[in-house]
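tool=predict chain=A
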Amino acid sequence: MKSLITFIALFFVAIASANADVGQFYDTARVVNINVIPGQQQTVQDCSNSGNYQQQGQRNNTGGLIGGIAGALLGSQVGGGNGRIAAAAAGALVGGLTGDRMDNNQQNQGGNNGCTNRVVNTQNEYIVTFDYNGRQGTLRTNQIPGSTVRVLVSVTAMQ
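tool=predict ok
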């Protein structure tokens, strides 16, 4: 019984594979025309995490520190006594806020959160018109064809 089932299974596999290959073959067709579709320049944005940038939410304190010191030095030049101390404190506060704002705005805008733009040229494409036994067809490819192209021919018997 087992050998009969094996025989039937092999029989159906043989029929299926024979029918799959019947009536199809590869041949060559003559190229009669080629139209070029020129490639274009495209801007691609690369947002990998490998760049040197600040992620949103991270802040840099360098600008605030430098601004605060500069503001305190400038403020201490104004007035005398307690007025000089108050002017130095106000200068440190204003300088620190200004420096912080300038530093962090610059990095958030200029860094583009690690994304860089680059220009990429796309490949030319070709619309190839070919003739096979008096019948014309077209194909689109990104490779320059030769004088012939490979075609798959399918033959079906008609009754």
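Confidence is low (pLDDT under 50) at residues 9-13. The CA atoms of residues 51 and 114 lie 6 Å apart.
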